[in-house]
């Protein structure tokens, strides 16, 4: 099983039971999750993302068999392109993570278009994090709505050759993005925040297709069990389809 | 381990027959569904301020499901307390003659309204719980919505009634503090995202005796909500209480259960 959407690190608003790498790994062991794609959770709020990215590199380096890094880039911040070069050359980045809502830039703004052009040229996977937690429960001073589904669809449409994983989207968001994108070969979604309606996983497979849906946990913010149990107990898809969601699609996408 | 899901809506599709999908899920997870209709299934709009007639038609459908699936469905009666006499008559009739086992309150009136007190007094008489929707939101409450504090005050005015705070107040951390000192409030965990540590916070402050499992199906999926309990590091006794025992005890105490649908099964003498 490969978890396509996780983080390591602390969160400003509450203690998380699986924030640290050793705790996260033990939880993964308990649930038979072999590998996880991880980003530095602190990089949601850090300004200098290179600090968090270097920390992530060290964590991943110590557990190279378990963690696949996704480095966070903020194209709205000065020097992001030089930082990206460092991530590519020194840290060996293959996957990038974007938080347009927390970092406050437009997906279709000039700088991000430049970033996506680089991603396309260098065949980097771009993970767009739609949201991290239910906006209704955000701290009153830090209310950050999910990234607009329409913006994501337009972005994907503008770069049909770039590879995208839409992470942390709810059912309505991911299905609306899927429907609004013309060329979908390089578009993938994961199920961490798809926590309804009933039979959501089967509905995702029907709408999006079982080759483009991945198992993702949004750990440590969410329990892995939600996404895992949702796939495991889905009665309306086959075991072979479950294998694609749990492992095969991610193995292909992340070159495992 | 059997499960009682205290928060299930009927509005699953276009016809009441579509509820069979939720029954199949109940069978898969060995769950009893506490069910309420906040609108008749064919009525597309979600009236938050329904007429008495609209509520009665909704309850007719809940009753139909109770009769179709006596092993799997328990019904809560839905009323708009604004229609004071009509709502009281509707509630009493459903409890006394049809075996409904509770009251569902949404956001027709905020629950500091004396007309809500009257409904809760009826529940107290029949020893059935009153479930009040409450959801603190960073973006502000909807019209007529009751904040958690208001639900806690309702419970203080009726110390012998059992009040269920739906969604545990919405924000678990906030709800845990608000309801810590109201022992007659049960915290229903339905509807929220599966935040790590969320149920632990409720247990730490309110105790495992006061946390009860709910899903908010069909809008939420059963496994995403079950994961909140399964994912938490609690003793198996605590998990059993949350998933089954606490609510089984409440349902067993109802004075209406003998008249209507069969009483809840009681494995291991619990309940
Ligand atoms: Zn509600
Ligand atoms: Zn509800």
Task: Give your account of this protein's structure.
The complex is a heterodimer of chains A (256) and B (271). By secondary structure, chain A is an alpha/beta fold. Chain A has a single domain, classed as Metal-dependent hydrolases (TIM Barrel). In chain A, 40% of the residues lie in helices and 15% in strands. Chain A has helices at 21-30, 49-62, 80-89, 100-103, 110-121, 149-158, 171-180, 200-207, 224-232, 239-253; strands at residues 2-8, 35-40, 67-69, 71-72, 95-98, 125-129, 163-167, 187-190, 213-214. In chain A, the strands form two sheets. Chain A has a six-stranded parallel beta sheet. In chain A, strand 7 (163-167), helix 7 (171-180) and strand 8 (187-190) form a beta-alpha-beta unit. In chain A, helix 6 packs parallel to helix 7. The longest helix of chain A has 15 residues, at 239-253. The radius of gyration of chain A is 17 Å and the shape is globular. The mean pLDDT of chain A is 98. In chain B, the strands form two sheets. Chain B has a six-stranded parallel beta sheet with strand order 4-5-6-7-8-9. Chain B is globular and about 45 Å long. Chain B has nine helices and nine strands. Chain B has a single domain, classed as Metal-dependent hydrolases (TIM Barrel), CATH 3.20.20.140. In chain B, 39% of the residues lie in helices and 12% in strands. By secondary structure, chain B is α/β, with parallel strands linked by helices. The complex binds zinc ion (ZN) (2 copies).
Strand content of chain A: 5-15%
On the 0 to 100 scale, the average pLDDT of chain A is 98
Q: Sketch the topology of chain B as an H/E string, one letter per element.
A: EHEHEEHEHEHEHEHEHH
> What's the gyration radius of chain B in Å?
17 Å
Query: Outline of chain B, from the CA principal axes?
Result: globular
Q: What is the annotated CATH architecture of chain B?
A: Alpha-Beta Barrel
Oligomer: heterodimer
Question: Biggest sheet of chain B: strands, sense, closure?
Answer: 6 strands, parallel
Number of domains of chain B: 1
**Proportion of beta-strand residues of chain B:** 5-15%
Task: Provide the low-confidence segments of chain B as ranges.
Answer: 259-271
CATH classification, class level of chain B = Alpha Beta
The CATH topology of chain A comes to: TIM Barrel
| Count of separate DSSP helical elements of chain A | 10
Structural class determined from secondary elements of chain B: alpha/beta
The tally of strands of chain B reads 9
How far apart, in Å, are the first and last alpha carbons of chain A?
Answer: 12 Å
Bound molecules: zinc ion
By CATH, the architecture of chain A is named Alpha-Beta Barrel
> What characteristic shape of chain A results from the CA principal axes?
globular
């Amino acid at each position: 099983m490969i978890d396509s959407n996780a983080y390591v690190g602390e969160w400003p608003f509450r203690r998380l039971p699986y924030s640290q790498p050793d705790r996260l790994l033990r939880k993964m062991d308990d649930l038979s999750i072999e590998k996880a794609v991880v980003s530095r959770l602190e990089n949601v709020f850090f300004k200098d993302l290179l600090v968090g990215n270097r920390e992530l590199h060290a964590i991943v380096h110590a557990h190279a068999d378990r963690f696949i890094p996704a480095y966070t880039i903020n194209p709205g911040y000065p020097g992001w392109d030089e930082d990206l070069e460092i991530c590519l050359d020194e840290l060996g980045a293959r996957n990038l993570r974007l938080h347009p809502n927390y970092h406050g830039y437009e997906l279709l703004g000039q700088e991000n278009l430049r970033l996506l052009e680089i991603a396309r040229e260098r065949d980097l996977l771009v993970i767009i994090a739609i949201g991290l937690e239910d906006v209704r429960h955000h701290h009153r001073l830090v209310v950050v709505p999910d990234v607009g589904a329409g913006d994501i669809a337009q972005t994907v449409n503008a770069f049909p050759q770039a590879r995208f994983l839409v992470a942390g989207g709810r059912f309505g968001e991911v299905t609306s993005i899927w429907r609004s994108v013309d060329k979908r070969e390089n578009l993938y979604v994961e199920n961490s925040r798809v926590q309804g309606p009933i039979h959501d996983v089967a509905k995702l497979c029907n709408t999006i297709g079982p080759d483009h849906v991945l198992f993702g946990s949004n750990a440590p913010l969410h329990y892995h069990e939600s996404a895992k149990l949702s796939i495991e107990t889905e009665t309306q898809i086959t075991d072979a389809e479950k294998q694609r969601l749990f492992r095969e699609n991610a193995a292909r996408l992340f070159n495992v | 381990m059997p499960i009682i899901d205290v928060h299930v809506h009927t509005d699953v599709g276009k016809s009441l027959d579509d509820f069979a999908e939720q029954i199949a899920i109940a069978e898969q997870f060995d769950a009893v569904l506490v069910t309420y209709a906040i609108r008749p299934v064919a009525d597309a709009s979600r009236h938050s301020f329904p007429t008495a007639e609209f509520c009665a038609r909704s309850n007719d459908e809940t009753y139909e499901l109770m009769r179709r699936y006596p092993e799997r469905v328990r019904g809560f009666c839905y009323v708009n307390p604004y229609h004071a006499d009509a709502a009281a008559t509707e509630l009493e009739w459903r409890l006394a003659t049809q075996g409904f086992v509770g009251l569902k309150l949404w956001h027709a009136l905020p629950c500091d309204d004396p007309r809500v007190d009257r409904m809760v007094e009826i529940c107290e008489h029949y020893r059935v719980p009153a479930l009040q929707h409450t959801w603190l939101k960073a973006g502000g409450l909807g019209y007529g919505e009751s904040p958690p504090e208001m639900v806690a005050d309702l419970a203080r005015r009726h110390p012998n009634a059992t009040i269920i705070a739906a969604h545990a107040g919405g924000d678990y951390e906030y709800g845990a503090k608000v309801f810590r000192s109201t022992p007659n409030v049960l915290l229903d965990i339905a509807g929220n995202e599966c935040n790590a540590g969320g149920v632990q916070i409720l247990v730490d402050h309110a105790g495992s005796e006061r946390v009860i499992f709910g899903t908010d199906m069909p809008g939420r999926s059963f496994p995403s909500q079950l994961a909140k309990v399964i994912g938490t590091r609690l003793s198996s006794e605590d998990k059993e209480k949350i998933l089954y025992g606490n609510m089984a005890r409440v349902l067993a105490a109802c004075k209406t259960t003998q008249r209507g649908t069969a009483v809840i099964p009681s494995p291991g003498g619990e309940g």
